[in-house]
Each structure stands twice: as C-alpha cells, then as structure tokens.
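Question (not urgent): is this output format expected?
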Amino acid sequence: MNSDAVNPSVLRRLRKTPLRDLLRGQLTGRLDLDAKLASSGLSPRAGRLVSDTVRRTRLWRLEKAAVADELIAHFRDGRAAGATDEELAERYGDPAAAAKLIGRAKRRSRSLPAKAFVWSQMAAAILIVLYAGLALRFFVGAPQVKVDYVERINAAALAVPEDQRAWPTLRAAWIEAREIDDWDHPGPKFLDPDPAVLDVRDPSDPAWGEAEAFLDRQRRLLDAIRGGAAKPRLGFVAGFHNDLSLDDRRALGMHLNDEPSDAGAAAADRLISESLIGVLLPHLGLQRDAARLLTLDTWRAVHRGDADHTADNLRAMLGLAHQSIEQSVLINGLVGVSIFTQSADLLEEVLALRPGLWPDDQLQAIARDFAGFKPRRVVTIEGERMFMYDTLQRLYTDDGRGDGRITDEGIRVLSMMGNMSFAPADRRADPLASVVGSAVAPGSLLVVASRRETRMLFDRLMDGWEADYARPLRENVEASGVAEVEAWGWRKRMKFPTLTVLLPALDAVRRTVERAEGRRDGVLIGVALERYRLEHDRWPADLAELTPAFLPVLPVDRITGGPLRYRLEEGRPVIYSVGGDRDDDGGRPAVQRGEACIDLAAFWSEDAAFYEGDWVIWSAAE
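Got this back:
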C-alpha cells in the first residue's frame, strides 16, 4: 500500500477535498479513494474490487466517493455477519456489471438541476459535433462560375456585322475631337474646357460666338454622330477595364494604363471584380455627350432657319436613344429614356420658338420617329435578372440541378456588398475578425436560403413586377414584388441577403417610364396641333378635332385614365394632366423652391397630393 495513501500529506488532502468542503473550512480529503481503502482494513483483493468498481461507474467524483463508502461498508457488514473478505469477494460478482448497476441507480437518483446540467453537457457536445460537421460542409464548398453572363449581355452588340456598327466610326471621331496630347492623363471627360457652352440657346447670349466656333471645330464629330445614329446598332461591346482596347479608352476619355491584376487577390475579391456587376458601360456617358452636342447644333440650325438640319439632329438624338439600349441593362434603358426626353424637350422648345419651321410632311416624319420610341419596351429588367443569376453562381455551390448552398467566399462577397457585418470581407486585416468570422460563418447554412429557393423567389418577384409593369401605373400604384420586399422583417432579410442587397429600385423605374410615355403623348399631340394650325390657320377648339386626320387616337391622362386637358394660354395650346392631386389647376405646373417644374405633379399615389399643380406634357407657349 502506498505510504502516502496511508498517511496523506496536507497537500494531497487539499487536492482531494471537494470545493464545497473547503468553502466550509473543512479539509476532508474525502475524494481520496486510495486513502479510504488504506484505512478500511479490507484485504487487497476486496480493495481491488472496490477500486475497480468505483472507477468503472463513470460518476462524478463526489458520487464515486459515496459509492466507495457504501462498498466498504458492505464488506464491513459482511465481516460482522461472520464472512471473510475472500468469501465476500467470491460472492461479489463481476465489477463491471456491478459498476453499471450502481452508476445507473446513482444517475437516476440525481436531483433535477443535476440532471439538467448533464443533459446540457450532452446537448452541447452534440451541438459541437453537429456544428463541426456543418463547418466541414461549409468550408469544402466553393462557387462554380459556369455561365458567361458578360457574353450574354453583349449578345446583341456581338451579333451586329462589323460594317453595320456605328462605334468604329464614332470612336475615331471622338479620338480626333478630344485633341489630347497626354493620353496618360486625359483630363476632363468632355471635349471642351467649359461645358457650359453647350447650354447656349440664343444668339443674344454672350457665349454664342464661342459656341459656334466650338461647333465648327467639331463638325466632323457631329457628322459622325449623325451618321452613326442612323445605323440600327452601336456595336459597343461592354467589358472590364482591361477588356477595352486602347482606342476605346481614348475615345471614352479613360486612362490608358491597364489596371493591375492581382493574381493573389482573395477569392471573394476576384468573384466580385469578374462579375457582371463590374462590367463598365462608359459609352452611355458618351451618348449623353453626343445628345448635348446635337442639341447645341440644333439651336444653331433653328436660328438659321435650317429645317432639314434641325430634323436630322432630332432624328439622330432618337437614334442615340435607341442605340443606348443595346445591352439589356436597366441603366441602359434609363439613359435611352433620358435622351428621348431631352429630344422631346428640344422639339417642344423649337416649335414654341419657331412655329412653321417644318412643313406638314416633315412634321409627319418627326411624329413617326417619336411614336416609334416605346419607353415601356426600352426599359427592361432582363439585365437585372442576369445580374442576379451571375451573382448567385458566385455565391453558391452548384449541384448540377439548379441548387446549391452558400459558401465562405459567398459570405465575404455579401459582406463586401454591405449586408452581413458579422462576416468581414477581408479577415486577413483583423485576426480577431478572422477568428470570429470563421467561427460564425458556417451558421449561415442554417440561416441563408438555398440557391434554388433564392432564385425561385427572385423570379417570382420579377415576374410579378413585370406583370404590374405591363399595365398603366394608375391600375396598380404599388408593384407587388417591391412592396413585398419592403415589408420584410429582419429574419426574411437575413434569409435572402442577396435579394435584400441586389433587388433594384424598380418602383421608381415605373414612374420614370410613365413620365416618359406621357412626354411622348405630349409630343404626338403637339405635332398634331402644329399640323392642324398649318392647315386651318388656327388652333382647334377641342382636341377631338385632331382625330383621325392628324392623330389616330387621343392619348388619355396617364394618372386618371380620363381625357387630357387642353387650353389656350396667350393664344397658344397647353396640354396637361390634372396631376397627383387630381385637381384641374388650369395647366399651372407645380412649383418647387420657387421654380415651376412641369412633371413634379406626375405622381400616381394620392399621398402625393401636396404637389399642387398640373403635369404639363406639352406647351406651345414661348
């Protein structure tokens, strides 16, 4: 027998004393099984049986101490009954079986808090194992980019034969027009050091002479713009910075140096930089610049009385609007609508300033050109669908059947988009963030919806929006899909973070398109009014006189669905909608910050009734 067990030291007794005893000021050493056996007087065989049984019970230390006391007492009782330790040991049986029975009985007799503690430990162990499996499944998954959506979005441009593309001619003209010597530092995006010159409208303006000189210098560019706008397609292939040729960058006023490609960049960085979202569309700015040039040139033609040149410029602006929508991306359509609206404003101003500039045949041709622009068809969300599909393939795994789970790279991409703050994009920059992010990220498998579920919900929302979009806004002010997402709580937003981040602001798009269509209605009525005046030498008393000779069908008020309002102001016609307040204010536009705004009252929700005034869609007043 170990002498230290027979005479335990103070340090050993301290180690073998339960904390509860120490707190009471007692140095009991009652957890010391060897000391108990040494002082029990049991034979070595009986001592081994007790020790073996106690250790096999897998009980807590205090419970084991109690079992040891009970077994020692059992042997002592047997001795008192006249049996020897050897006889008692023979009758004792298998220590393993005894330990199993004793352990089961002890565990059953535990208090409820003790049982709860054990169950919580077991549950924690199970959760740790399950989370480890979840983490393994999470970290072995990786996105698989299988579809080249950049090529798909360029399909229309790539399908145009080289000889029918406007871009090569325009590119050469823009390069020549920029007159830049240092192409490493091209300076301002536009041509002239003072772009305000482009806003000159009248020969009485002190800057008129400078504007004319500017137009003379850019004659070849203007000819190229008009010639290019007459072609059905621009033929500009969108891509990343390094995909654009040097001549493309010169024409667009971009820096010529290649952007460095970091081969060691994090996977999440590459997933974003190579995604459809990163594609550049710099030509849209160039289309706007071209429209501004044509506008200035048109005013010079108007003041010279050149009807043909003025009509050619308007037709070219409409061509620019059509060409801007070559990529079926929402921003392309909105730029096209913006250029169209600019051309409509220009036509309205020209007719107000120079009535009688065009004969009837030219007015008919102008009306046909404007009628051919369909804002509702121009602005589509096909590109937005591709943006989402491309993003999903960069966030999720791909099981080959349209489904997959979120990945570690995907979580970091979402973090870069500003949605999941618990998973910082660059964990290398912060060790603590790395530990926390890596520990928490696997839990996203339990929170974030699967690839299929996300895409199905996205498609349902987009299908619903498109169904609403196909109808006039007055029939459904709140698009169903947009309203549903805006009402989401935090749980739904965490489940569908991709939709929360990337779903475009489509409600504003519907209003923009409706206003553009109202503007087109105004153009068609305005041209019909001018044709009527040329033939009858007066304005009609009522819009009904325009049909069918000058206008097949009268457009309706896009806000109410009723007839548009018509009145003569100082002898000139004004066409207007009653606006968001549904109140006829006699064609007086709404005012904001002291200035009249012709479409400020173009709101469909009755909540916007505080915009007192009408939506003026055409005015011949000078």
